[in-house]
Amino acid sequence: MSATSDAATAAVATPSARPASPAALALARAARWRWWEIALFAALPLSWLLLPSQSLLLNEIAIVALFAVSLDLILGYAGIVSLGHAAFFGFGAYTAALFAKDVMPDPLVGLVVAVAASALLGLATSALILRGSDLTRLMVTLGVASILYELANKLDWLTGGADGLQGVAMGPLTVPGTSLAGFAFDLSGRTAYAYSLVVLALVLVLARRLVHSPFGVSLQALRDNRLRTASIGISTSLRLVVVYTIAAAIAGAAGALLAQTTGFASLDVFDFHRSAEVLLVLVVGGTGYLYGGIFGAIVFKLLHDLIAAWTPQYWNFWLGLFLVVLVLVGRDRFVRPWTWFGSGRAAR
Amino acid sequence: MLTLLFDGVAYGMLLFVLAVGLAVTLGLMNFINLAHGAFAMAGGYVTVLLMNRLGVPFLVCLPIAFVATALLGAVLERTLYRPMYARPHLDQVLFSIGLVFMAVTGVDYVVGSMQQNIHLPAWLQGRLPIEAVGIGKYRLFIIVTCALLTIALQWILSRTRFGSRLRASVDDPRVAGGLGLDVNRIFLATFAVGSGLAGLGGALGAEVLGLDPTFPLKFMIYFLIVVSVGGTTTITGPLLAALLLGIADVAGKYYVPKLGAFIVYTVMIAILLWRPQGLFGRVAAR
User: Fold this and answer.
1) Which residue range(s) make up the domain with A322?
2) How many other CB atoms are there within 10 angstroms of residue A120's CB atom?
3) Which of A146, A201, B212, B247 has the CB geometry, 3.0–4.6 Å to B8, for a possible disulfide?
4) ipTM for the assembly
């Protein structure tokens, strides 16, 4: 929608003598790197250098951020409300853990395998989200996650059942194409965080290209009005399948990172809590601009640490209260405190 | 075999009473209320606490559970739920998940996380002396109670003035409002009754389903299955869906315990793929 108005202004601003079409110019302008994006990307390696003692926490934040970015692709850009996104996260985690345990301990190969497996799962289940209302989609995504949870629970010869998959030994992280000894995953989490950061940055760059491409713009169009998008000749089903598969692959990467850096995969990765939490993370950070997941993950994990240190058992209560207040105040208004005391309509 | 069928029917009836309020909420205001199980849990805890701490008889507890949760529902509807109706589904989902989390940990904090037991009166324990079919007396009690409730609900919906107002509001809230019906008040009453029924179901089901603070999370998906498979436009749709789910779940757990809840989820996904509006639903008018 904003793309069309941009296109219109571009058409006015640039006379027809220019060879590039107005739409292409508008796309290129929207895809330009903003100063805060550059600052954000610069902050990622700086956090590794400046906060070496916090690497374990930062690693968790990076993984949650990656997971939330994957959800943003389908929720923020394609408008699909999913209550079962943990299905792909967990699938990636179990695939990576099983691969490291039974096939080979190399983390990079394991990551690729887990991403491919999750993408396949996303492709297979994407047909389920094409039909029906929001409620149907909620139920189906929730159902898929529940089925995987049950599977991981019952197939105890493979997954360890309720005890989880223990004793996953990861090999050292080697740089492909070199014969260096590689970096072992240690207790301080320095290697783990660097690894997660690189994956996160790579995914962000790729996802950024994706959402600023014509494909990404058409996704937003179908989010805003699917019927209208379909009637101007854009195949909505195909786009939903593609973006769902990509999001599943990224969620699988996040899961694989978790399993590889902690050396452990348990039923918890499929839990409903995961799906609900990632929704919250994304919503706190804001949907539909790709970086919401990162800010949300930082806020969420810091809050979690703070409240859990104070009252570990009842942390969920405060999480729930936070959700209720967040929605009552309004998601878009929550990040803009100066609109709280004006009249409700002025903010919209 | 017949015993299984009987238990399944009892389970299904229970699920129906628990979920019918959700069907109305969803059908009437298009509101996705994941926190419905919290009302059922409230009813269950009211009963357990009254019986075990104050020694109130079981049959007296049931109406108290109904009234208490209906009041709770009315208060929450008035204060918290109403601003949510016009919001997008994502907001509603987040909001009700937040309520569930609060309810779960709140109960955990107040009562404790252990499973609560109900001591049934002696005349509801044991089985009827029929050899061929093992019929638990309590199961029979559940079926009779729920069947009576269903008939009463059906009668209210189809025969009374309130019922026709409610149906009008479900069909098209704007036109109903334009004709002078106070849709907000109708919805308040319906929400309260729906919550009350959930509370009653929770009280009845505390013995069968088990009652602990994670109840709303454990059964959330079951309620949603009943509603999404049964559709929200009729009362018979959710009833049939609940019976189907109850029988399938009991039989599945008996014959193939390895698979567990796996079958139920798979069947649900298959049905929703085949008919996204639910087995018995119509295509929504809006």
Assistant:
1) 315-348
2) 15
3) B247
4) 0.81
